[in-house]
Design goal:
4 copies of one chain form a homotetramer. With about 375 residues, the first copy, chain A, is of the alpha+beta class. Chain A has a single domain, classed as Chorismate synthase AroC (Chorismate synthase, AroC fold, 4-Layer Sandwich), CATH 3.60.150.10. Chain A is built from 9 helices and 18 strands. In chain A, the strands form 6 sheets. A 5-stranded antiparallel sheet of chain A has the order 1-2-3-7-4, with helices on one face. In chain A, strands 9-8-10-16-11 form a 5-stranded antiparallel sheet. A two-stranded antiparallel sheet of chain A has the order 5-6. In chain A, strand 8 and strand 9 form a beta hairpin. In chain A, helix 1 crosses helix 9, helix 4 packs across helix 9 and helix 7 runs antiparallel to helix 9. Chain A is globular, with a radius of gyration of 21 Å. Chain A starts with a strand and ends in a 5-residue tail after the last helix. At the A-B interface, strand 1, helix 3, helix 7, strand 11 and helix 8 of A face strand 1, helix 3, helix 7, strand 11 and helix 8 of B. Strand 11 of chain A pairs antiparallel with strand 11 of chain B.
């Protein structure tokens, strides 16, 4: 099921950018969770077009409707279906894309795979698909926060780099608060750098161009034991989750690529007894060892390429393989990274919740 | 199924480092493929301990036995089971690990998760588990090579970095041959750099320390259309496959993390008609667009941390959370990267074959 | 995923009887299939309440909307989402069921499992859930019919027994036509028996009681080779599909339970060469041998219990375990069997299509 | 994965009748379960050839080896791999089957599907495959028995019919003890009928013929709440499990096919408060309502056809479609039903354990 994610808390998304609607079905949701449509909406608003002056101006309120699985304010354990109607469709705006392949877009590959494609706004390849992920992520984040009341799991993503503007690592020792993240349109908690980033995005947009960046995500409160020994390692599922997002090009956990530069004696995280618990003195492991969480902060980073849609003429070919030129048009994000922050959080939450449920199923039922 | 990988060509591995045996079951293998035990063995020998003077001297011939699914030299379409008996077991050598958690190993997390662990040689967390992956990878690579005889898929991995010794990118324009890769113990096709890398590994080992590195993998001959639109993007499954390997910390496709430094106008791969086919002028996409292969070379890199096992005393805690010291012993690789090359290839082959079969199932049966 | 069915052509249903809507998502649908909303609607009308005077009079038009996966009249290969709004909701009619468990209904078990339930009209346990199955079945049946134009697969179910009124087997040698099946409200192609059945249903309803029956399903045109050797035998998946329908109590293939009364020499289906093809002289196997189709007609029967909802007072207990009495009310089917005919066909089509795609994936891509 | 069964407690079997070995991998087994090879062996001995004078005399000790997943007498939570070497191989005995299709066997369908088959003893279609199921069933039964010590789940299957010799239902009110079941070679707890059954089997065998029969299985101690609302209903998964066994032709739960003969007012199981628990006065539901267990005894029956292998000449066709005659030879069971009893128990245990773990994962982790 290529449009589903998760083994026990399974999320299935459907919908095209300019079709009637976008939606999601969550199967396996624990019953009796209090949930309101307002909670879902609030997070969709973080992902919504038109939320600031550095994102696409497409007019979409993204108003969500809960269609099933909720009864008198609580989940029932049956599928939770949610839907957002597409509103601002401009079929005419995409006439050019019917015949021409946009460079570094999914046009050519969809056509090659399926022999047909909905060319309007990228159809299924549009980032509007992630509406369903964000809606499901709200449920997952809420469950994670409630699972162990005394130690709520907190999932926090934020922008650390736009183009070559990167927050210095020493400025990120503390986990930023949600308020700090949301205080700038670019969702970078380092205010000075955030201002430069916003300027950069605006400058690039003015040239009809685009930029990429890096998002860091940290998760606090994850108990030791989540993740599976072999193929379903926690970092493997996180990597898959992140690389399943549009425009991503890389993933690294803890020390990441820079870890290759260290010796074992420098890289190893020594165990120590802190406050009566087994802890590590450092966290180059990024909170995961042998594929399983060790109780430390989970830390990973995701690289995003610059938006493929640019407002400059580009040479390309058409459906018949003939050379042609594409005049970029339409509403788009000059940089997808700020709006990707809640999506990264949603995917991280889905992975962690699913693994928690799996851990519980295998190791929590029987006492020997 | 945490110990299975692949939806249609499904690989399930089992076995512990010092248990009776290590094995694999392949379910869904196409029937009638000619296959010999020698083909499997040849690739296992690339992964085998004791193959050179820069890897662990553990004495394992890793002789494989095919237990089912083969009849008169051809696969039958039923499960292909293969097994390697563990030979060089030294239970006594691991007495210390029964009580002490090795830093940056899976000891603590397995104990936390399961409440029990086979401490000998890491048990299930040992890289010996990858024997089954490599054996399965042989079958996958052979199928990929035979699928389209005129355009065989070639999967080629090689070492590009050990510690801070990195091959300059301009030296890697051409795909290295297998002979070039295998010509040095470190599996780096750049001979001058390979020699430095070997020296570095030996020097580090002499200090009882370890180093990490980077493997690049390229796949040629992949037709356009493999990969799925949303969660099962080709790069998502490749990322999961790579992060499911022991000691990995990062994955990047095409431009990767460096892609964030480019503008869209610099990053986009323009389409052109070359030799009657739609091709891209550059390949910053790494052969995948919108999650689906575009027919260009698939290019990705995997970061490996330095081996956690070092022969230096390290502070740690024991099963009871009490501080103690671990005196490293035992046979280990001072750098896992050279032996990981065939494993990276195996995992890449498994992902690509599985997606090819999926593509065929959905888009190849019906003609409208 | 308890609300999904099928490995490659995967159907996920959602929705409650008296929630906002009922829906389905099909993942893995082959691309480019011509499809109209009218085709879906026509089959939903076969399942619809109020279609005759022997079914429930609940007023539901069951108008379907296609929300995604269709572009300019053809499937795109991306998820096909469909939805029917619930119209005739009468929350007040179910006030009694909030506190009382209806005998032989899912009230008690849902409450036990989830600790919460939508009591209105059975919530998720309502047969309205099968709307999604029928809609998906239309797509599956159409694909089966088009796959091999010269030998279209035909899936035909019909009623053979209501209460103790059973069609004699000798009257069913020929596959009934769709017109014959649809010519009576009870969907029994034996007209004389159908009239008695209809009388029986009306008589029983007049007493506030209900009856069950048996549906036979036959599938013609299935090529040899569908089904898997071990757990996913064709009859195993058909059995699961049928027992997943509300009110079913039994499944048998070919000779079924009566087969136990024969000797091997009587039961074996001898092979013969007929018209240049390997055929069997008899079909006690029901078209499946060793779990795999043999090219003969697939024949199976499904037993349905009498509707649990009856309009007679019944002793029961309430949410607090206290004895009470339930006064049956509401609109219901005195016999679910006639409306189950298109649902049985839909499930059979889903199983066969999925296995065809699986067969193609494993055995159709590689030529050795 | 056609050779795997179960979502959380996943069993994968491999091996052919006359290949080197038969085996099983269990993935997802809870950790720390005490387990010995003797426990596995004892149950395999119930399934073993040559155990009595009414089964096949093939000489197989079926000695099992545990290859992984067990450490110091307890499961580790990693894959539990087990293997039995095939001993009594007589390749020559099957020369005839290389070219000829045995009637009602899997020869023709395997050849049609895969274009190749291991013809010796049926290869993968042999009931020797069920060795792995029985071995896995031991683990599942043990877990079920230990899960709730005060109310251990007991899975008990027994023969109720051989050919036309059926135990009268009124003789089966009480659950037979294991001793009663095992006290006769035919595994029918009704001693007088058992003797007749044994005579019948011997008489039929003397004529080179075979017979079928019916097995009933009852499960006590299952808590309410196991099973899923829609596709994965408990009875659906039980039906699939049973129809996945060789030679099965039918499945019915509770009232089964006979239930169609009752009116709703006769069939409904009234709820009552008995000993402070919600119970049903009768059990026509067979312990499952709305797909979910209700705490009553789970009762189902499975129909087995007569063994297809008979020692009489039978007309058939060969690989080239030419008419020929098959002279039955070889060692076989004149009736598979007695040896199928432990296999039915194993499959029932696998289904129930898997659903218990799923129930726990979704509904047991979070308290709201």
């Amino acid at each position: 099921m290529p449009n589903s994610f998760g083994k026990l808390f399974t999320v299935t998304t459907w919908g095209e950018s300019h079709g009637p609607a976008i939606g999601v079905v969550i199967d396996g949701c624990p019953p009796r969770l209090p949930l309101t449509v307002e909670e879902i909406q609030a997070e969709l608003d973080r992902r919504r077009p038109g939320q600031s002056d550095i994102v696409t101006p497409r007019k979409e309120d993204d108003k969500v409707e809960i269609l099933s699985g909720l009864f008198e304010g609580r989940t029932t354990g049956t599928p939770l279906a949610m839907m957002v109607r597409n509103a601002d469709q401009r079929p005419g705006a995409y006439a050019e894309m019917r015949e021409k392949f946009r460079p570094s877009h999914a046009d050519f590959t969809y056509q090659s795979k399926f022999g047909i494609r909905d060319h309007q706004g990228g159809g299924r390849s549009s980032a509007r698909e992630t509406i369903g992920r964000v809606a499901a992520g709200v449920v997952a984040k809420k469950l994670l926060a409630l699972a162990v009341p005394e130690q709520p799991v907190i999932v926090r993503a934020f922008v650390t780099q736009i183009h070559d503007l990167a927050v210095p690592p020493e400025a990120l020792v503390q986990l930023p608060t949600l308020t700090e993240v949301e205080s700038t349109a670019v969702r970078c908690p380092h205010r000075a750098m955030a201002e430069k980033m916003i300027e950069r995005i605006k400058a690039v947009r003015a040239e009809g161009d685009s930029v990429g960046g890096v998002i860091e995500c940290r998760v606090q409160g994850v108990p030791p034991g989540l993740g599976e020994p072999v193929f379903d390692r926690l970092e493997a599922d996180l990597a898959k989750a992140m690389l399943s997002l549009p425009a991503t090009k890389g993933f690294e956990l803890g020390s990441g690529f820079a870890g290759a530069l260290l010796r074992g004696s420098e890289h190893n995280d020594r165990f120590e007894n802190r406050d009566g618990r087994v802890r590590t003195a450092t966290n180059r492991s990024g909170g995961v060892q042998g594929g399983i969480s060790n109780g430390e902060e989970i830390v990973f980073r995701v690289a995003f390429k610059p938006t493929a849609t640019i407002l400059q003429p580009q040479p390309t070919v058409d459906l018949h393989g003939q050379p042609t030129e594409l005049i970029g048009r339409g509403r788009h994000d000059p940089c997808v990274v700020p709006r990707a922050v809640p999506i990264v959080e949603a995917m991280a939450a889905l992975v962690l919740l699913d693994h928690w449920m799996r851990q519980h199923a295998q190791c929590g039922l029987f006492k020997f």
